[in-house]
Design goal:
CATH class: Alpha Beta
Order of helices and strands: EEEHEEH
Shape: globular
Distance between the termini: 22 Å
CATH superfamily: YggU-like
Number of helices: 2
CATH architecture: 2-Layer Sandwich
Radius of gyration: 11 Å
Largest sheet: 5 strands, mixed
Structural class: alpha+beta
Strand order of the largest sheet: 2-3-1-5-4
Length: 88
Amino acid sequence: MGDLRVRLQPRAKSNELVGLREGTLGVRVTAPPVDGKANAALCKLLAKRLGVAPSTVAVVRGQSAREKVVRVDGIETSILLHRLVDVT
């Protein structure tokens, strides 16, 4: 499993990956940061971009913060970053 540091911007104009900065992936989602909606949108976006089931992606730290750690089961961190940076 791989852990990924993410900086999340909720209530953005579109759902998108904005690049890697100092080892942290920037992500924008349209969902508001209410009742876990932004976290769910983040997990769904990452799962889609990685081609994995949404159930394998989870926020493991920073549920109510902009800076988060997301875990993806079945993919090592180095491979995770390579796949995400290639699609941005």
